[in-house]
């Protein structure tokens, strides 16, 4: 008896000290504790009163369809009028029946709890009001960032209790009772990864919080006591008993509805067969997973971190067009078996524009997922540096750089069977001299070819000769300007911190025009969008806008668009690329898919057939398809079906081009009719300084002088001809050329002269406007091998 009285006396003293600590914070030792509590209140009070809690961010496509739900705590806040009154009555009845009367702290209950707990030697009563519970949960679920802070938020010490009481009093002064109750119900956990009443209602019953009935409300109110132990899927009897306890308190506290509450006790729990939780993150986005990841990376670079997304409750409106995405996914899946372990095909579609380049689709043949045994991957294949190169697609960069220096697309380019580019390093064909890059064509071509013909049929020697005239550095810079921005990043060369662009320029690698280096496939798609936008580069953006939980648009830090080449150059180059689907290396795939619309395109294949691609665009859609060895040790690839093989036969005109046509054709009707842009005569004819004088039938000396005066260098090649010995039969290139570049003159040796024929001479063949007639001996035109 004496011991019990001592405990009670001690409890009274403790309760008195507690009150003293609250009312007289500067007195004695507890004054020091209370001062620390006051500091904590000051630090948290602003957050507490503001009441911002972690909420689910939703990423949607252009039609408003959810792509992914992104969250740390699965919570959807709802206003008071969207919460059932049954739920409000149930939670107040079981947790704080004097809620409407007290001012944040139930002093009577607090003192009683101190006495009861101290007398028993253990915690039997909590006496926390809804205000205090809200404070405790807010500190645990919102404020605490570390395990130590989370332990401190729930520690059973007088200091914590003082902080909690002080903040509860502040909360009750600043907010109405309805605001506090609404915030409480939106905050607390309900188990099975569910937070807040709206998600709890959906998780267990598949209804909104506004539609919760009496029995459902009582169950959820009871679970707040211990959401981990009171799980209706693992402890049905315990949850049923607790629900009925809540209903009993409602019978006592709201006698006018006692019969209704007694009837509810007879009902089963009525929960769903399994919890209805929304999947978390990009992993549940299926074929949209790669796009989802890219969008989050883009947001992080634009000023909204992943942590902010996971807590912010944003509505993230993306640029993903579901119709285009589905078409791309179907085309990619048809071309490449998702179960291929070592080969991937990726495709991204970008919408051209002067002020934005929206990413409207992104897909890979590999399934997005975490199970490598099922050939799933979460690697950023469509938007990272992968593969062995895009091959001859890079010839468009050499062409663009040449056009910027003065070359016109009507120029006639030389097509030697073999070319040795001096000063461009060793490599290429057999018997290559030192400090020389040697290259041969895969087949035989007529010579010369116009720029348009060369882009369509893709002879290697022509473009290696062209890059020697243009320069490697301007060509690399053109590739970067048009869209391959990753090439300037440190470490992309694979050597130290050197960028790939700097390495290629430093080593003067003429092979760059043949595309033997890894690419970022999304950036290659954006190159197409830049050309389709009249030479205007914009970052490939997956985001249309981000809206916060108050409905306000969130500003993003994004790169500005740039005019990287003149519109006339981009438009004329687009025209020069407009024959690939009709007369070039992609013509077979175009016919096979029934493609019959104007489009610009370029195929590419690496020499070892370990990767290939097709870049194509209309005035509305731009995309690159890329097939590569998705393996640490990629091998040669064969076509139809795609597979690893000993001797590759993969070409850009095969699966890559076919995938592009199959993906774009079904959605063409959603956009303005395809049309090639207008030509610019400046880039058709070439600049005035780039015009090659017509020296046909001149002597070698006179021709050399005329070309030298025009600013060109000259080299002579003597060959059999029907004109008098020593006369010039023609030049290569002719029409226009890079100012200051080397012009080859073909000098006749007179060995093919024949007696005059009495028959009249045939009329000259038509030539392109503004170009001098060619006088070269006839050369058989073979069927070109696609590259």
UniProtKB/TrEMBL annotation:
Lineage, top-rank taxon, reads Bacteria
PASTA domain spans which residues? 686-749
What sections of the sequence does the record tag as coiled-coil? none
Tell me if Hydrolase is a UniProt keyword of this record: yes
Recorded catalytic reaction(s): these are: [GlcNAc-(1->4)-Mur2Ac(oyl-L-Ala-gamma-D-Glu-L-Lys-D-Ala-D-Ala)](n)-di-trans,octa-cis-undecaprenyl diphosphate + beta-D-GlcNAc-(1->4)-Mur2Ac(oyl-L-Ala-gamma-D-Glu-L-Lys-D-Ala-D-Ala)-di-trans,octa-cis-undecaprenyl diphosphate = [GlcNAc-(1->4)-Mur2Ac(oyl-L-Ala-gamma-D-Glu-L-Lys-D-Ala-D-Ala)](n+1)-di-trans,octa-cis-undecaprenyl diphosphate + di-trans,octa-cis-undecaprenyl diphosphate + H(+); Preferential cleavage: (Ac)2-L-Lys-D-Ala-|-D-Ala. Also transpeptidation of peptidyl-alanyl moieties that are N-acyl substituents of D-alanine
Task: Supply the SUPFAM superfamilies for this chain.
Answer: beta-lactamase/transpeptidase-like, Lysozyme-like
The keyword Transferase belongs to this UniProt entry's keyword annotation: yes
Pfam families named among the record's database cross-references: PASTA, Transgly, Transpeptidase
Write the record's keywords in alphabetical order, separated by commas.
Answer: Carboxypeptidase, Glycosyltransferase, Hydrolase, Multifunctional enzyme, Protease, Transferase
- The UniProt annotation puts the region (Disordered) at 580-609
This chain's protein is named Penicillin-binding protein
The organism named in the record is Nocardia jiangsuensis
């Amino acid at each position: 008896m004496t011991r019990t009285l001592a405990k009670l006396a001690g409890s009274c003293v403790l309760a008195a000290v507690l009150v003293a600590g609250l009312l007289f914070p500067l007195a004695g030792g507890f004054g020091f504790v209370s001062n620390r509590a006051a500091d904590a209140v000051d630090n948290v009070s602003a957050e507490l009163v503001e009441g911002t809690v972690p909420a689910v961010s939703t990423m949607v496509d252009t039609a408003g369809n959810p792509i992914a739900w992104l969250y740390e705590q699965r919570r959807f806040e709802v206003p008071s009028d969207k919460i059932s009154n049954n739920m409000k009555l149930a939670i107040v009845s079981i947790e704080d029946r004097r809620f409407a009367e007290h001012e944040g702290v139930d002093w009577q209950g607090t003192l009683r709890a101190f006495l009861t707990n101290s007398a028993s030697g253990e915690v039997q009563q909590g006496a926390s009001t809804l205000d205090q519970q809200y404070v405790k949960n807010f500190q645990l679920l919102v404020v605490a960032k570390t395990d130590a802070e989370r332990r401190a938020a729930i520690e059973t010490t007088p200091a914590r209790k003082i902080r909690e009481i002080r903040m509860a009093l502040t909360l009750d002064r600043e907010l109405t009772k309805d605001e506090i109750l609404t915030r409480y119900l939106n905050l607390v956990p309900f188990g099975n990864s569910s937070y807040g009443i709206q998600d709890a209602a959906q998780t267990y019953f598949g209804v909104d919080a506004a539609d919760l009935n009496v029995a459902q409300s009582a169950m959820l109110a009871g679970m707040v006591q211990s959401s981990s132990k009171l799980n209706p899927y693992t402890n049905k009897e315990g949850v049923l008993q607790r629900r009925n306890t809540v209903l009993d308190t409602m019978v006592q506290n709201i006698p006018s509805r006692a019969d209704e509450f007694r009837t509810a006790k007879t009902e089963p729990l009525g929960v769903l067969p399994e919890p209805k939780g929304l999947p978390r993150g990009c992993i549940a986005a299926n074929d949209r997973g790669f796009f989802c990841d890219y969008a989050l990376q883009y947001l992080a670079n634009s000023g909204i971190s992943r942590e902010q997304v996971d807590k912010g409750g944003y509505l993230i409106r993306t640029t993903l067009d579901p119709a285009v995405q589905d078409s791309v996914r179907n085309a990619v899946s048809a071309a490449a078996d998702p179960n291929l372990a070592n080969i991937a095909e990726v495709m991204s579609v970008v919408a051209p524009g002067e002020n934005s380049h929206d990413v409207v689709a992104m897909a890979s043949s590999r399934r997005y997922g975490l199970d490598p045994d099922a050939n799933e991957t979460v690697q950023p294949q469509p938007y990272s540096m992968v593969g062995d190169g895009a091959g001859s697609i890079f010839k468009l960069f050499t062409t663009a750089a040449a056009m910027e220096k003065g070359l016109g697309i009507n120029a006639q380019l030389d097509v030697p069977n073999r070319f040795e580019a001096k000063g461009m390093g060793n490599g290429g064909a057999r018997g290559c001299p030192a400090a020389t890059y040697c290259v041969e064509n895969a087949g035989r071509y007529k010579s010369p070819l116009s720029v348009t013909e060369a882009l369509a049929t893709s002879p290697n020697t022509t473009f290696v000769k062209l890059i020697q005239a243009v320069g490697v550095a301007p060509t690399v810079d053109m590739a970067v300007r048009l869209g391959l921005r990753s090439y300037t990043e440190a470490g992309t060369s694979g050597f130290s911190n050197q960028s790939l662009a700097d390495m290629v320029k430093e080593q003067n690698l003429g092979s760059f025009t043949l595309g033997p280096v890894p690419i970022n496939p999304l950036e290659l798609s954006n190159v197409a969008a830049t050309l389709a936008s009249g030479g205007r580069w914009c970052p490939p953006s997956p985001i249309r806008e981000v809206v916060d939980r108050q409905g306000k648009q969130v500003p993003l830090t994004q790169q500005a668009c740039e005019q990287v080449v003149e519109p006339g150059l981009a438009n004329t180059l687009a025209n020069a690329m407009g024959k690939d689907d009709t007369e070039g290396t992609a013509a077979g795939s175009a016919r096979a898919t029934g493609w019959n619309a104007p489009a610009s395109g370029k195929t590419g294949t690496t020499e070892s057939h370990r990767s290939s691609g097709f870049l194509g665009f209309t005035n509305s859609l731009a995309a690159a398809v890329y097939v590569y060895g998705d393996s640490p040790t990629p091998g040669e690839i064969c076509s139809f079906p795609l597979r690893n093989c000993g001797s590759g036969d993969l070409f850009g005109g095969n699966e890559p081009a076919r995938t592009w046509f199959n993906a774009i054709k079904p959605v063409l009707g959603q956009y303005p009719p395809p049309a090639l842009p207008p030509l610019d005569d400046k880039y058709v004819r070439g600049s005035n300084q780039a015009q090659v004088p017509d020296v046909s039938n001149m002597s070698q000396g006179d021709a050399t002088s005329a070309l030298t005066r025009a600013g060109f260098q000259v080299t002579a090649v003597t060959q059999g001809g029907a004109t008098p010995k020593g006369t010039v039969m023609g030049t290569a290139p002719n029409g226009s050329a890079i100012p200051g570049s080397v012009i080859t003159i073909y000098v006749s040796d007179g060995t093919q002269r024949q007696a005059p024929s009495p028959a009249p001479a045939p009329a000259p063949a038509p030539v392109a406007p503004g170009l001098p007639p060619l006088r070269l001996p006839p050369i058989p035109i073979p069927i070109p091998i696609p590259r």
